[in-house]
Design goal:
It is a single chain. By secondary structure, this protein is α/β, with parallel strands linked by helices. The chain has two domains: 233 residues, Aldolase class I (TIM Barrel, Alpha-Beta Barrel), CATH 3.20.20; 66 residues, Type Iii Antifreeze Protein Isoform Hplc 12. It contains twelve helices and twelve strands. The protein has an eight-stranded parallel sheet with strand order 5-4-3-10-9-8-7-6. A two-stranded antiparallel sheet has the order 1-2. It has a two-stranded antiparallel ribbon with strand order 11-12.
């Protein structure tokens, strides 16, 4: 299946010229403070992010205030023991902040968008001019939500953290049903933090080729190794949780990068982009000059006119100003057309007859 080549989000051309779209995930890392949220946007820009991403929900739009065992976390997460409602009430970004956060991002020339978790969240984000939408890993099965998001004709970035192949197919079908083909699939490991041996970065090129979309990474591992590997494997988007300082605390603090770490990641990703480069067998001017130090045929003894070329009087050595070593066996047994001094490059004109 042919991949879509370029998707525009807020003026950033994703997929163009190997430029990875780097998203700083704000998530709950404001820890209930609007000023923290605003400062995080400033810091994300300074750290080199291309975009800041919010999460738009309330406890009531994402779950029920139920106190049964179904609604208590017990899956081996850092939040085990909490009820879903309490966790989301603690972690949510107040909707009344959104306008100011979008405006702050715009003032900083930082693209701002969000993950909506119900239709009302989509409506709010539409009113703010969100340039794209992110479907969180656990919402990939919410087909009505995906259809509503896709109907807004904005790019849709979908995390695949809890998805099997059939789940991904359904989500893509939901987008395409609404006439929306601007889709990015992100490889994601929905553990917090995620073990590096479960990152499975080989999925990134497979997602792109199997589903005919751009692909990337939503990363919950510690450190910056996985984003760099993702870049070398063709990721076009990298999303990483971002916090000014982990001492602020909050539900996501332990697996988020601080400003200095995020800046290191951005630098490493940009260097990885340069290192990946392109398939190109043409030599640069500097590489051509380097060929001067390749091997060629030289006189390893003084050779008199009419003398036969032998293994004793010619050798393949550095530098590369003489005949190509591919002629070595053909030159053996030929006679010298002139006197050749030790250390002289062997030339075609030095041979009697022709090769």
């Amino acid at each position: 299946m042919k991949n879509r080549e370029v998707i525009d989000i807020g003026g950033f051309q994703i997929g163009k010229e190997n430029s990875v779209f780097i998203i700083a995930e704000l998530s709950a890392n404001h820890n209930g403070s609007l000023q923290n949220a605003l400062d995080t946007i400033d810091a994300a820009k300074e750290a080199g992010a291309d975009a800041i991403k919010l999460q738009t929900y309330t406890a009531d739009t994402i779950t029920l205030n139920a106190r049964t065992d179904d609604f208590r976390l017990k899956q081996g997460t850092i939040w085990d023991g909490k009820y879903l409602y309490d966790l989301y009430r603690e972690a949510y970004t107040p909707w009344e902040w959104h306008k100011e956060l979008f405006e702050r991002a715009k003032a900083k020339d930082l693209i701002c968008f969000s993950s909506p978790f119900d239709k009302t969240a989509v409506d709010l984000l539409e009113s703010l001019g969100a340039p794209a939408y992110k479907i969180a890993s656990f919402e990939i099965t919410d087909i009505p939500l995906i259809e509503y998001v896709a109907s807004k004709n904005k790019p849709v970035i979908i995390s695949t953290g809890i998805a099997e192949e059939a789940d991904i197919e359904l989500a893509l079908q939901a987008c395409k049903k609404m006439g929306n083909n601007e889709i990015v699939l992100l490889k994601c490991t929905s553990s917090y933090p995620a073990p590096i041996n479960e990152a499975n970065m080989s999925m990134i090129p497979d997602l792109a080729s199997r589903f005919g979309v751009l692909s990337g990474l939503s990363d919950h591992t510690m450190g910056i190794t996985v984003p760099v590997v993702a870049t070398t494997l063709g990721a076009k988007v990298i999303e990483k949780h971002f916090i000014i300082d982990r001492s602020i605390g909050g539900p996501d603090a332990t697996f988020s990068l601080n400003k200095e770490e995020f800046a290191q990641m951005v630098k490493a990703v940009r260097e990885a982009e340069l290192a990946v480069g392109e398939v190109n067998y043409r030599l640069t001017e500097k590489q051509r000059k380097g060929k001067d130090f390749s091997r060629s045929l030289y006189a390893s003894n003084d050779i008199r006119q009419g003398e036969t070329f032998t293994e004793q009087n010619i050798r393949s050595v550095r530098p590369g100003f003489g005949l190509h070593p591919k002629y070595y066996l053909e030159v053996l047994g030929k006679r010298a057309h002139r006197d050749i001094e030790f250390g002289s490059p062997l030339l075609l004109s030095d041979l009697e007859g022709s090769l």
